[in-house]
Amino acid sequence: MTTVSLPVRRPRTLAVTPAVVGHRGASGTWPEHTLEAYRAAIAMGADDIELDLVVSADGVLVVRHESDLARTTDIAARPGLAHRRSTRVVDGEEVTGWFAEDLPLSELRTLRVVERMPGLRPASAAHDGRLPVATLDDVLEMVAAESSARGRSIGVMIELKDAAWSASRGLPLDTALVATLRRHGVDTPRSRVTVMSFEPTILQQLAGQVRVPLVQLLDRRDRRPADLAAAGDPRTFGDLASPAGLALVERYADGVGAHHSLVAAEAPGGRGMRPSTLVADAHREWLTVHVWTLRAENHFLPAPFRRGEEAGERPAAHGDLGGFVELLLELGVDGLITDQPDAAVAAREAWLAPVGVRVPA
């Protein structure tokens, strides 16, 4: 196991809590990671937007869920780019596709975005082929304009994807990120920018470089962070989510972003939900807790919140996302990362209404 010397971090707090975060924008309505999806989330009342970053061949930070472009762009229909298709091992898995780090930004700009889940989201798929790939620069400029126009500060939660793998190819994400944040003047604790990753290593590296809050993402308990697995470290996300693990996370991060099953899991047979102690354990370490990803479709909801399945409804039918949001708020989470920010905002306001609390703009 590798021993890492960690800098001491000054605690930072969220500007809005409980916050609603538009996951990849309003990605239940528009193709994910497009400026239109982000603007829609902001119009729906989201306090923050969430985005994922990969890097182009010329070192530009591009907004995509993963470096493989096959599922979210029209690159497969571009004969001129057919020769860029390749097979490689990413995070221990063999992947065949077209990868962002093989294309310069000029070529990435020619692509058009498509819906990742057209069967579940046909309305979003209706926009296929219309919208370009965005960069982090594009998003930060858009957020600054929207914040000014709407008279409220809009947060940006940035997830760094496959950081260790990108670094191994000579394209370190931390270098490009720090330069971009400073160029836009947002590397400050008050900028409403947060940086997240599933990989502890990149967050530990950034802890001494940036002034914005850092969030350790936590996947399901039995899975392992890719960087730790590559280094032969046996720890799982369950280990990081334990009280001892959270005490270590607190040394380099300001919060955790947990898969919702780590906060409340289905009881056996889908009969109710079983809350965990994660929120209390994290708060004891002065770590904030965001939960991901909250989606309205029955396909993604825990069984107690699915609706209409006994009547033959398709998995795309919407269940009781509001009820799930209220449960998580009762458990004390600080942020809700969701594909349907309008539904989450409505549920939050309903939950706050009885005590007359309003979330500050």
Give a written overview of the molecule:
There is one protein chain. The chain has helices spanning 35-43, 105-108, 122-125, 136-150, 163-168, 173-183, 200-207, 226-230, 237-240, 243-249, 260-263, 278-284, 321-330, 341-352, and strands at 19-23, 48-55, 61-63, 86-90, 93-97, 155-160, 193-197, 214-218, 255-259, 264-266, 273-275, 288-294, 335-338. The protein has 361 residues and is α/β, with parallel strands linked by helices. The protein has one domain (19-67, 112-355): Phosphatidylinositol (PI) phosphodiesterase (TIM Barrel, Alpha-Beta Barrel), CATH 3.20.20.190. Strands 1-2-6-7-8-9-12-13 form an eight-stranded parallel barrel, surrounded by six helices. The longest helix has 15 residues, at 136-150. It starts with 18 loop residues before the first strand and ends in a 9-residue tail after the last helix. Keywords: Glycerol metabolism, Hydrolase, Signal. This is glycerophosphodiester phosphodiesterase.
**Count of individual domains:** 1
Q: What general outline do the C-alpha atoms trace?
A: globular
Please give the alpha-carbon distance between the first and last residues: 44 Å
Poorly predicted spans: 1-5
How many helices does DSSP assign?
Answer: 14
The helix content is: 25-40%
What would CATH call the homologous superfamily? Phosphatidylinositol (PI) phosphodiesterase
- CATH architectural type: Alpha-Beta Barrel
- In the sheet with the most strands, the strands line up as 1-2-6-7-8-9-12-13
Number of strands: 13
Specify the biggest β-sheet. 8 strands, parallel, barrel
Q: How much of the polypeptide forms β-strand, as a percent range?
A: 15-25%
Q: What is the CATH C-level name?
A: Alpha Beta
Kindly provide the radius of gyration, computed on alpha-carbon positions and rounded to a whole number of angstroms: 20 Å
Q: Please give the oligomerization state of what you see.
A: single chain
